[in-house]
């Protein structure tokens, strides 16, 4: 087996391994489990504690008519 | 963590429990191989056993046979994850640099960071149990919606002052923000120079379908400042976004609407207060059959065009309007073709949830290249199923039409209903709206059709647009050869609540099987998904006296599910 064939087989092997891992992630719903048990609680915590502008302080200013017809 | 706890967690998350009968069953290698290759027959699937209790997650995703599992893995799961990345780069306008805007948006907005990353589970819920052409065609509809969602939020993020340290990005001045119920068609004359992006469609509407946890924050926020809890929760969520300062600041103006009801008028008023920038309120008439109303509606649209011209300094472009309207008409023509196949054959390859969401999305959003691309895929599949007479939903016992506004947090109920009971929801009210061809021969005709299109918006024509439109259910039921009605009962929709008794009388008089499905649009706390299933189960067992196709789907807990 020459060097080039070996490299091709090595690349194919790497692709096959990645493909197999991705299939396992898909089949066992590991993406869903990660998002549900780890990502989402982390995000909830972040957004619950986020400092936000108090929009209710916006003045009740009246604007001019935007069009002369209405 | 103790070893026993690890074992318990492993069992909870990955092991599908077998019943004693299944355990004691003698091994049949030939059948096992057949099930592996082709997937189990519908009645033996036990889809309900795949769920992790309470979460809606899967212990493992369904094995649909080699061909369909590999199709799902390669052409749906991998394909969509990969295309989401390319879409982000494409629509962000700055190639790989757009990923930075995406990350900023993810960590800034709850509706993005908490919601959209779980999008593949939206596919899973909607496509559960589907096989072959029905799986493929329905998935293309989902793909179209995902791509268009990415286009919109990337446009928002790339133009958002909040994500750029308060500075005004170049694209900010080129965007028109509008209420999600203002049709994208209105803005065709300006699309050469301006981009129209609905403000609440992505932060609120689509997000609820993907992950219904987020919206509850916005509903509660609206009530926290003293606003009443009984109007439509859609409107509450829309202004809740503003109370929580969770809207992107991506455009200098806003076009709002009174659609669908008085609740939306409140949204418009509150948005005017919170946004504090030029705003044009474009009302849509309720009793639109009156010819005098048409003239008024057309003037409102022309007023909107004038507002845009004044605010942006761009001119109304008739040729641009014609180009987009003609292109949109092609989508309408294909929709009619789809309806024809759905109504008259057993070969329609799109399931109830994909049909409903795709139609309401593209017709509200207006013409975009992605819809044509998706329609080409679906057309190819549909031509094949019709030509080869492939029965796409072979376990159909009842052809149902769903009427009124659907529960957004359980839009995939129809996938469950088919898998569990063989109820095939072939068409729904939201699909039948916006049924209007846009003439482009003269300005007058164009304006006339555009105003009619606008009046046939979701939740307007057939929900609060007068009893003659609401009761057109019975005409459509006949045209689509349906033998059952799933009647949505939006508990906070005052319009539809008012006509509840009329429907009861009509169902009795016409001897129609109708199942009332109560819900509160985006708010799963009022009527849970489990409760919706219980109501359908009760009707099917007590009135129809039928047995389920898959008994494992009768009762399961998915309260915390997305």
Automatic annotation (TrEMBL), chain A:
Swiss-Prot/TrEMBL keywords: Membrane, Transmembrane, Transmembrane helix
Domain of life: Bacteria
Transmembrane region(s): 7-28
Stated name of the protein: Uncharacterized protein
Source organism of the structure: Butyrivibrio proteoclasticus
Automatic annotation (TrEMBL), chain B:
Molecular functions (GO terms): hydro-lyase activity; iron-sulfur cluster binding
This protein's UniProt keywords: Iron, Iron-sulfur, Metal-binding
Taxonomic superkingdom: Bacteria
Cofactor needs: [4Fe-4S] cluster
Pfam families referenced in this protein's UniProt entry, alphabetically: HGD-D
Alphabetical list of PANTHER family matching this protein: 2-HYDROXYACYL-COA DEHYDRATASE,D-COMPONENT, 2-HYDROXYGLUTARYL-COA DEHYDRATASE, D-COMPONENT-RELATED
Family, as annotated: Belongs to the FldB/FldC dehydratase alpha/beta subunit family.
The protein's name: Benzoyl-CoA reductase/2-hydroxyglutaryl-CoA dehydratase subunit, BcrC/BadD/HgdB
Source organism: Butyrivibrio proteoclasticus
């Amino acid at each position: 087996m020459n060097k080039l064939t070996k490299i091709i087989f090595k690349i194919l092997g790497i692709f096959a391994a990645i493909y197999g891992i991705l299939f396992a992630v898909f089949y066992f719903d590991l993406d869903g489990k990660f998002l549900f048990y780890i990502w989402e609680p982390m995000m909830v915590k972040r957004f619950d504690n986020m400092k936000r502008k108090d929009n209710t302080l916006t003045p009740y200013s009246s604007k001019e008519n935007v069009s002369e017809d209405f | 963590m103790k070893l026993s706890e690890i074992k318990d967690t492993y069992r909870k998350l990955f092991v599908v429990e077998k019943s004693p009968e299944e355990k004691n069953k003698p091994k049949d290698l030939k059948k096992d191989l057949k099930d592996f290759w082709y997937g189990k027959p519908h009645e033996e699937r036990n889809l309900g056993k795949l769920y992790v209790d309470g979460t809606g997650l899967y212990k493992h995703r369904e094995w649909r046979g080699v061909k369909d599992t590999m199709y799902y893995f390669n052409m749906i799961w991998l394909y969509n994850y990969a295309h989401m990345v390319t879409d982000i780069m494409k629509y962000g306008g700055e190639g790989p640099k757009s990923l930075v805007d995406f990350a900023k948006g993810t960590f800034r907005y709850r509706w993005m960071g908490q919601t959209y990353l779980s999008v593949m589970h939206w596919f899973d819920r909607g496509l559960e149990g589907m096989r072959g052409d029905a799986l493929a065609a329905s998935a293309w509809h989902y793909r179209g919606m995902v791509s268009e969602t990415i286009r919109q939020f990337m446009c928002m993020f790339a133009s958002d002052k909040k994500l750029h340290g308060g500075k005004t990005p170049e694209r900010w001045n080129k965007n028109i923000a509008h209420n999600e119920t203002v049709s994208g068609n209105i803005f065709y004359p300006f699309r050469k120079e301006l981009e129209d992006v609905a403000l609440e469609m992505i932060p609120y509407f689509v997000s609820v379908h993907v992950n219904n946890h987020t919206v509850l924050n916005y509903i509660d926020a609206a009530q926290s400042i003293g606003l009443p809890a009984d109007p439509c929760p859609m409107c509450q969520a829309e202004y809740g976004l503003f109370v929580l300062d969770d809207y992107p600041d991506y455009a200098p103006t806003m076009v709002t609407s009174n659609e669908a009801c008085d609740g939306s008028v409140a949204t418009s008023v509150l948005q005017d207060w919170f946004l504090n920038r030029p705003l044009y309120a474009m009302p849509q008439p309720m009793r639109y059959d009156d010819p005098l109303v048409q003239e008024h509606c057309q003037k409102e649209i022309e007023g909107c065009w004038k507002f845009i011209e004044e605010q942006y300094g761009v001119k109304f472009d008739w040729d641009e309007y014609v180009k987009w309207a003609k292109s949109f008409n092609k989508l309408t023509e294909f929709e009619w073709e789809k309806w024809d196949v759905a109504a008259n054959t057993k070969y329609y390859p799109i399931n109830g949830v994909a049909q409903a969401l795709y139609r309401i999305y593209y017709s509200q959003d207006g013409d975009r290249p992605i819809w044509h691309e998706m329609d080409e895929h679906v057309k190819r599949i549909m031509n094949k199923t019709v030509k080869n007479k492939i029965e796409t939903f072979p376990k159909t016992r009842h052809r149902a039409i769903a009427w009124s506004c659907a529960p957004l947090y359980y839009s995939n109920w129809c996938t469950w209903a088919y898998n569990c009971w063989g109820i095939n929801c072939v068409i729904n009210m939201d699909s039948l709206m916006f049924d209007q061809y846009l003439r482009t021969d003269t300005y007058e005709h164009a304006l006339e059709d555009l105003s009619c299109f606008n009046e046939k918006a979701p939740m307007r024509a057939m929900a609060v647009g007068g009893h003659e439109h609401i009761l057109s259910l019975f005409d459509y039921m006949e045209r689509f050869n349906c033998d059952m009605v799933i009647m949505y009962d939006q508990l906070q929709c005052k319009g539809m609540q008012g006509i509840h008794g009329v429907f009861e009388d009509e169902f009795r008089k016409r001897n129609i099987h109708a199942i009332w499905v109560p819900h509160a649009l985006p708010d799963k706390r009022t009527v849970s998904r489990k409760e919706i299933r219980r109501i359908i189960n009760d009707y099917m067992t007590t009135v129809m006296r039928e047995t389920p196709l898959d008994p494992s789907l009768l009762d399961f807990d998915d309260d915390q599910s997305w």
